[in-house]
């Protein structure tokens, strides 16, 4: 299970999901949605904690950490920014 968590951490790092947030920040730096109490973004999957913290957490709760990482990765992969190319607004 530890190898699975390490692979998920590597994939999350490749997607730039680890962006530690300051205590005063309330909006995501990636999509500008509101962050939850831990600094995570429910919209785009950004994780507001460093990867080292999740590695420590995986030692005691590998299943919970893997679930958190899988969810964040899936959110980032399915996230489509508003106004992305191909979604041109009609002008009158």
Mean pLDDT, to the nearest integer, reads: 87
Number of separate strands: 0
Report how far the terminal alpha carbons are from each other: 56 Å
Tell me roughly what share of residues is in helical segments. Answer: 40-55%
Counting helices, strands and paired strands, the structural category is mainly alpha
Q: Give the overall form.
A: globular
Oligomer: single chain
Strand-residue proportion: under 5%
**What radius of gyration results from the CA coordinates?**
15 Å
List unreliable stretches of 5+ residues: none
Main sheet summary: none
Helix and strand sequence: HHH
How are the secondary structure elements laid out?
Elements: H1 2-14, H2 51-60, H3 62-78
Helix pairs in contact: 1-2, 1-3, 2-3
Question: Overview of this structure, please?
Answer:
This protein is mainly α and 92 residues long. The chain has helices at 2-14, 51-60, 62-78. Helix 1 runs parallel beside helix 3 (62-78). The mean pLDDT is 87.
Q: What key phrases describe this protein's structure?
A:
92 residues, globular, mainly alpha
